[in-house]
Design goal:
This protein has one domain: Serine Threonine Protein Phosphatase 5, Tetratricopeptide repeat. Helices cover 66% and strands 0% of the residues. Helix 2 packs antiparallel against helix 3 and helix 4 packs antiparallel against helix 5. The radius of gyration is 18 Å and the shape is globular. The protein starts with a helix and ends in a 13-residue tail after the last helix.
Length: 189
């Protein structure tokens, strides 16, 4: 029986993993619901400032463009007040990624690229330094053939993404080769 327990545990873990979404199959609706739930729990303006970024990104991921735009505008309005907040760098990134994705969806490609570069002007944050930035807008621009602006964004990201920034070199090489990198989890941060 003692030998069966580890086998049963491993089998259970494998079965559980089998049902988990893969990178390209994220459960956007669930993530959006969780982001809205977190946002509703904010008791102060500063807490709300911290939760808005996830809400705006997830709203856009489920096709709620107006909600995403509203959350992004609200966070952008609060940004000057919270420049010393640990989440400020995330806010710079999130607001500009959302504004850029909306611009791109509306056919304003050049403006979308400008927002991508503004996202790269973030001072960084604990999360950005460790896990790196969201690459959804970069991927969408690459799908439209906008390589130069994406490479310029990678260069900006190398200033704050210190832990795993090696990905940027590989991604840059791939973009120069005409490929679209597999950004993995950087599509959902």
């Amino acid at each position: 029986m003692k030998r069966l327990v580890p086998i049963i545990v491993v089998a259970s873990l494998l079965a559980a993993c089998e049902n988990k979404p893969r990178t390209h199959e994220w459960a956007w609706e669930e993530r959006f619901a969780e982001a809205i739930k977190d946002l509703s729990r904010a008791r102060t303006e500063e807490e709300r400032f911290c939760y808005l970024g996830q809400a705006e990104k997830e709203a856009l991921n489920v096709g709620k463009k107006e909600a995403a735009l509203g959350f992004a505008k609200e966070q952008a309005k609060l940004m000057p007040k919270y420049k010393d907040n640990w989440n400020y760098g995330n806010a710079v990134q999130d607001v500009n990624i959302v504004f850029g994705r909306i611009a791109l969806a509306e056919g304003r490609v050049k403006e979308a690229g400008e927002f991508l570069l503004k996202a790269g002007d973030t001072p960084g944050s604990p999360q950005l330094k460790s896990f790196g930035p969201n690459m959804m807008l970069a991927r969408e621009l690459l799908e439209r053939g906008e390589r130069d602006v994406v490479v310029a964004y990678f260069e900006k990201c190398s200033r704050f993404w210190t832990m795993r920034g090696g990905k940027l070199k590989e991604w840059t090489r791939q973009v120069h080769s005409g490929e679209i990198p597999d950004f993995g989890a950087n599509l959902v941060y």
